[in-house]
Structure formats: structure tokens, C-alpha cells
Amino acid sequence: MKIAVGTKNPAKVHAVQEVFLKMKATIESVDVPSGVSSQPFSDEETVEGAVNRAKAALEVSNADLAFGLEGGVTETPGGLMLCNWGALVTPHEQVWLASGAKIVLPFEVASELRKGKELGEVMALLTDDHDIRKKEGAIGVFTAGRVTRKAMFLHIVELLYGQYEHQLKLWKH
Ligand SMILES: O=P(O)(O)OP(=O)(O)OP(=O)(O)OC[C@H]1O[C@@H](n2cnc3c(O)ncnc32)[C@H](O)[C@@H]1O
Ligand SMILES: [Mg+2]
């Protein structure tokens, strides 16, 4: 089985690799456009980015399954929240969706984003680590390392592949 993932970001690629570790699968990571702004600002825009990435990854790789994973933020009554979405697409044009855990961003971080800065930039300045988005990410920093960006995406990939497996079981009956 060949699986594609529409990003080169190791926090996302490693999440997919870990889920398929015990299966005979080859994972191909491909750099594809999200087709949305570099800092998505709603659940709708973030999920659209995930679907675009998955479809583009499938197209360039000819894989059996393709994942698109996208990070963004969304305004809520409790404040600006981190939001993450994943999409799984098949060559039969089926699409499954799943979202990740959400936390409210600290006010200072939220206000920088509302001024138009990207979360990646803000987090790089805050942590003095240019590559923080490829490592524990904002969610890791603000949860004292308990839930890293990879762990959060791993959960999304499990939710996606689990839905696909459930569908396969129904077809066999
Ligand atoms: O290479 P890609 O796959 O694009 O990986 P990315 O880190 O840019 O991730 P997204 O495009 O999905 O995220 C959209 C924006 O939010 C930033 N971002 C999202 N989650 C983050 C996190 O946990 N820590 C730091 N930056 C994050 C990211 O740098 C972008 O500016
Ligand atoms: Mg990006």
C-alpha cells in the first residue's frame, strides 16, 4: 500500500509514519500547495486546506490513500483557538475529515495573529527556535510538552484511518 502525505513538515510526516509503522506501507511525503492562506483563520479555511493538500498529494503521487494535514486558528467566545484538521482521500474520490484537539492561545499571541502575523513566526520569536513548528509546535509549548504537534496530528491520522477501516469492514459484509 502506498500512502501519500501532502507536506514535508516532519511533525506531520512522522505522525503518519507512526500510525502505519506495523503495516506494509510506503509513505511518500510531497510538497503541495494548501490553496488557502498561509495562516488559515477559521475551521472552514483550515479544513479546506487539509482537503486541498490531500487531493493534490494523491494526484502527484498515484498513491492508494492520501492525507492532508493543516494547521490554523479560529475565533471562539473563549478566545483565539488553535485548530487543526486532517483529510483522507482515496482514488475513488471518497473524503474523510477529522479535527484535532483545540486550546485557547495566550492573549499576547492571539493579538499578534489578529494583527496579521503568522503563528509560525510568533512562536519562533517566543521560543527563540526557528523550527518550533517542525517540533513540539505551539500546542507542545502551551501544554508544557504534554501534547506535541506530532501527537496531536497522530490522533487526527488515527481518526481518519479508523473511519476508512470502518468503511472497509462494512463493504466486506
Ligand atoms: O510545511 P507545512 O505543512 O505547511 O507546515 P506548517 O508548519 O506551515 O503548518 P500549516 O501550514 O499547517 O500551519 C499554518 C500556519 O500556522 C503555523 N502553525 C500551525 N501550528 C503551529 C504550531 O503548533 N506551532 C507553530 N506554528 C504553527 C504555521 O507555521 C503556519 O504559519
Ligand atoms: Mg504552511
Based on the model shown, name its key terms.
173 residues, alpha/beta, Maf protein, 5-stranded mixed beta sheet, 6 helices, globular, binds inosine 5'-triphosphate, binds magnesium ion, metal ion binding
Count the beta strands. Answer: 5
Q: Indicate the CATH architecture.
A: Alpha-Beta Complex
Give the fraction of residues assigned to helices.
40-55%
The parts where pLDDT drops under 50 for at least 5 residues are none
The description of the largest β-sheet is: 5 strands, mixed
Compute the average pLDDT: 97
The CATH topology is what? Maf protein
Order of helices and strands: EHEHEEEHHHH
Strands side by side in the biggest sheet? 2-1-3-4-5
Counting helices, strands and paired strands, the structural category is: alpha/beta
Shape assignment: globular
Number of separate helices: 6
CATH first level: Alpha Beta
Strand content range:
15-25%
What's the number of structural domains? 1
Rg, please?
16 Å
Bound molecules: inosine 5'-triphosphate, magnesium ion
First-residue to last-residue Cα separation? 22 Å
